[in-house]
Request: fold
Amino acid sequence: MTPSGTPPEAARSPTQAGPATTPSPRLRLSSGAASYPVSQASDRPWRPAADVVFCAEEVGVSYGAKRAVRNITLDIHRNEATAFIGPSGCGKTTVLRCLNRMNDSIPGFGLYGSLRYHGHDLYAPGVNRVEVRRRIGMVFQKPNPFPKSIFDNVAWAPRNLGMKADLDERVERALRAAALWDEVKDRLKASALGLSGGQQQRLCIARAIAIEPDVLLLDEPASALDPIATASIEELVHDLKTRYTIVIVTHNMQQAMRVADRTAFFSLDRDQIGTLIEYDRTERIFSQPADQRTRDYITGRFG
Amino acid sequence: MSGWWWPLRGYSARVDPASSAAALAGRTRLTRLNRVDRVASRALRWLALLGALIVSLGLLAIVYQVITGASLALHRFGPGFVGRQQWSPATNQFGALTLLYGTLVTSVFGVAIAAVLGVAIGLFLSLMAPRRVAAVVGPLVEMLAAIPSVVLGLVGIYLIAPFALHNIEAPLHRAFGFIPLFGPPGTVGNSDFTASLVLVIMVVPIIAALTRDIFLTVPRELRDGAEALGATRWEMIRGVVLSTTPSGVVVACILGFGRAIGEAIAVTQVIGNITQVSANLFARGDTLASLIANQFLTPVSALHTASMFYLGMVLFTLELSTILLARYVSRNFGRRQWA
Reply:
């Protein structure tokens, strides 16, 4: 599914992650919520690969003095679905939320390493989070429609951004893309809270794509849904990745197998800090993983 | 083993069902516990009932007292008292209109300013301030409510009144004197406007604390959802926070209004105590509560005293309707709109 010209380093898999590496000299911890450790440009030259959307190098996260995640090095490719799998508490969601700076409001949050989005350092001073989130949309674990009408839920963000021309068409387009249009077209003025859980989640996806982001981050989008709703969300991910780059966190390995082109397996390292164990094409991760820990996890022999 | 927790022993005693003796022992223990339990529960019920009775009877007694106190004026003026403008102890002519007007003007104006400030503070404390800043500023705002009103009145006389006179009233009159609201200011700054400012200080902590708590009930997921859509902080606050809590904000303002109309001492210190209806905010005036505080110790006639009781009735009714309105709003519009 990827262009055949993918440079080999784009798919590198940091299988050696785990041993407690010495903290990089770039590491800086911040205490205040407003100031971030500024990630310096890497010493390695930035090799722009046309299809790499996110490039994380040695990314780590700390909350106050507590390290949550470290040694995350991976590239996320355009128009692919990338799944983050792994046991609870290993930092999948933390890393996902770093990608659109949703962790910023958490007190003590600090990020080190380098996290680039199309070559731009996401955490450089002066980067506008609002702009980041406008391009990198997010759908949360629990459906969180606004207590407004279905139409207003989808139209809210476009209105904020001044996309007021053809708002009706835009809303319809987004709802169609989220495979919700046929179910709600007759009750657009009804409250979004009257929808079922699966419909609410698809509404949240519609809401996110209404502003035509570049990337969609999905944080366990189906974990609160029944199997039928889950299937419709998975189908949706399949359709959406032709237009958007998708990163999906999931607890469900079958789900990762079904929807993802690449899969990153996260786990705790020997110091109980979340880290990336293995990252590769999904079929490789599930058929011949390089790391013993990945093998144990996918065969259910974890822990 | 009979510590302070002995009443609980019945629950923790292990009863071996195989041994009937042990089962019997367990049962006797439970019986003793039940007795203690029953007595305590009955005592608690009586205590609660007593408390409720005292409050209700107290309220009724106060209502009765106020009505008897006002009976003379009730007979003399009837319900028309509320619409009578004159308040003149010298000629035994009394009416509530001037004071009702003064009360409403100062309170509405004060609450209008306090609502803006209070909601802003509530937003700051709940959503914007770093946790440590909120932990310092929050209690400070609440302490504002702990200032005795008489002290606030003194501050009003010596600080707020001259400041308002020279820096707000006079410039506003010069610039917008053609609007009746901004008429010529007095000489020392005692005015409806100054009273409003003092009321602002009293009402701001109420509105700030209430709205802060209301804003904190907006689920984090909604705020995150808004921010994940590229909303600025203001768009998030307008679209997700304020739009889901309008009834709460209104209730906070109504309760602040209730505080404002009842305030006597601080208002009487700065309002100038003159019973006249004037559109001019900068003129001296008087309010229901302020007049009672000011004149009650020096009545010139029995009718004067009775009329002040009558004013008290008016104030009481006003206050009661405010609270009922707040309850009505919060009950009918305050449903949690997020499931």
Summary: Chain A touches chain B through 31 residues (CB under 8 Å). Residues 1-46 of chain A have pLDDT under 50 and may be disordered. DSSP finds ten helices and ten strands in chain A. Chain A has one domain: 8-298.
